[in-house]
Design a protein that fits this description.
This protein has about 220 residues and is of the alpha/beta class. The chain folds into two domains: about 5-140, 3-Layer(aba) Sandwich (Rossmann fold), CATH 3.40.50; about 145-210, Orthogonal Bundle (Arc Repressor Mutant, subunit A), CATH 1.10.10. Helices cover about 50% and strands about 15% of the residues. It has ten helices and six strands. It has a six-stranded parallel β-sheet with strand order 2-1-3-4-5-6, sandwiched between helices. Helix 2 (about 35-45) packs parallel to helix 3 (about 65-70) and helix 7 (about 155-165) crosses helix 10. The chain is globular, with a radius of gyration of 17 Å. The termini are far apart. It comes from Actinokineospora auranticolor. Pfam families: GerE, Response_reg. One of its GO terms (molecular function) is DNA binding. This is DNA-binding NarL/FixJ family response regulator. Keywords: DNA-binding, Phosphoprotein, Transcription, Transcription regulation.
Length: about 220
């Protein structure tokens, strides 16, 4: 089954360009294009796509408010990727707090957007590498403290958490630790469950908050 994608951006040319990129991929299907956040919320509720790619700056309802509305719906299964030209701290903060599966800059190459959509569809999450280390450490202090402590993890799970925090993919973690990719997925799932984390992005936040990031 192809991953169903909704595109939300107020620039028709940019939407057309993104759609053209998606149309080159057999496993991705653009099911809708919208030009404002309110339309994005309506169409996600109607179509239930696998992934919605939303620009931050849109009329009627901006992409962040649309993300919050979409992910507040208990029936929602759509993952949201937030795209922006501006890597502002407040944008990242709101996107993550809302539960977005990614925060990406529009300057990223098309192949990286395709990869990000696939990552989100699998239930993983990511932040553009160019903003991760600079921004995550700034807003972790303002997030609610965790009840779970890192010593709840096994030594292997802690290793995996550190590598997730270093922005490595499952395949890269598998190569680093000389284990299978399915084993990595199992470890990541257990780490998230033990620490009460929603996804990989929040695992990065957690690792920063607890001083686990490798320097």
């Amino acid at each position: 089954m192809a991953v169903e994608v909704l595109l939300g951006d107020d620039h028709a040319m940019f939407r057309s360009g993104m759609r053209a990129v998606l149309d080159t991929q057999d496993d991705l299907d653009c099911v809708a294009e919208v030009g404002d956040g309110a339309a994005a919320v309506r169409e996600v509720a109607r179509l239930r796509p696998d992934v919605a790619v939303l620009d931050v700056r849109m009329p009627q309802l901006d992409g962040l408010a649309a993300t919050e509305a979409i992910l507040a719906d208990p029936a929602n299964r759509t993952k949201v990727l937030v795209l922006t030209t501006y890597d502002l701290d407040e944008y990242v903060y709101r996107a993550l707090r809302a539960g977005a599966s990614g925060f990406l800059l529009k300057s990223l190459p098309p192949e990286e957007l395709i990869a990000a959509i696939r990552v989100a569809a699998r239930g993983d999450a990511l932040i553009d590498p160019s903003v991760t280390k600079r921004l995550v450490s700034r807003f972790t202090a303002s997030l609610r403290p965790d009840d779970a402590e890192p010593d709840r993890l096994t030594s292997r799970e802690r290793e995996v958490l550190l590598l997730v925090a270093d922005a490595l993919s499952n395949a890269e973690i598998a190569a680093e630790l000389h284990i299978g990719e399915e084993t990595v997925k199992t470890h990541v799932s257990r780490v998230l469950a033990k620490l009460g984390l929603r996804d990989r992005v929040h695992a990065v936040v957690y690792a920063h908050r607890h001083g686990l990031i490798r320097r």
